[in-house]
Amino acid sequence: MSGFLAGLCVAVLPVLALGVWIGRRTARAKSLAGLGTPVEHATFETLHTASLAAPPLRAGLTEETARKSARKLRSLLGTDALCLTDREQVLVWDGDGAHHRSEIMERLAGPLETGRGEAFRLTCDSLDCSVRWAVVAPLTVDDRVHGALVACAPRESAVLVRAAGEVARWVSVQLELADLDRSRTRLIEAEIKALRAQISPHFIFNSLAVIASFVRTDPERARELLLEFADFTRYSFRRHGDFTTLAEELHAIDHYLALVRARFGDRLSVTLQIAPEVLPVTLPFLCLQPLVENAVKHGLEGKAVSPGKCHIQITAQDAGAEALVVIEDDGAGMDPGLLRRILAREVSPSGGIGLSNVDDRLRQVYGDDYGLVIETAAGAGMKITVRLPKYQPGVHPAGRLPRE
Fold first, then answer.
1. Strand 373-376 vs strand 382-389: parallel, antiparallel, or unpaired?
2. For the chain, does the N or the C end have fewer beta carbons within 10 angstroms?
């Protein structure tokens, strides 16, 4: 969150400074009725125009996003023409003098290579052409030049050079935020792939082996388990949406537990206490299932040396603005020091990736106050508490509109 705020400040400051400069250039002694001073009015207009240009740029630098933002950017600078380019071509030209496209691209080789802006005179035989000078300001993300903002004017202007540089810096910040958004999306996809990969091959093998064992002795039971297996894998490997509902996640957990019960019989008992009012709550996809799998592994499979029975309790209750989900087992537990190292990704024992992955995703979506709360000790079982806000901006199940 602090990184986002820092990025926001960097994104706003250049256009704010530009607005103040414009306001001071046009200021008169009297205030504009109802609009504050000329400086305040110009600053507001600048920020408003920048806010309209920002959304397209947050999708990256393409012909479509350049077309949607170019006119607003030209309005910020007050120039006769403006173009945005990538490293290969002019993406959009807004204003007069579009016949200078090829000349602009020829002169961009140096700025695109060095990352330094420059101004140069345009050659033109047309007496009606209003643009005679071009100011080039490179667009950079992570020290790599992605393209350029080129402002064209009738004459050379040191003020335009500086203003174009400020606007280009602001555009670069928007492109950097777009890159961060893509990186975040790739990270979430990678984390979900990691969770899918964690669905143990041993679990799949054991489930199929259990199903096969019932084929001759109890065909109807084998059929039921095969359907449970199909429903569980269908949910786990779905390819749309980063979020789901608590009801859908618990339904998938029910399929998973049916397969586990078929293998371990009466060695495993599960109690569920679910408040109906929290079933629509949205949460990250594959968020609770790994925690239940962890409870099975450490609660029941952890007792392999001295086989016994294990009880797992899953509760979900209403807690005002939040839903409180608790997954508790009476199994082997874990040394708290080892658990801290697992959550810090310092070690990755079998099953550890599920805990650290879920903890990271919860913090990423809801903030650091919403990480896993785990109570455990060697031989004392494990209790995992998950707090889920009932509403979080941008968090809603796939295919559904955000709640108003």
1. antiparallel
2. C
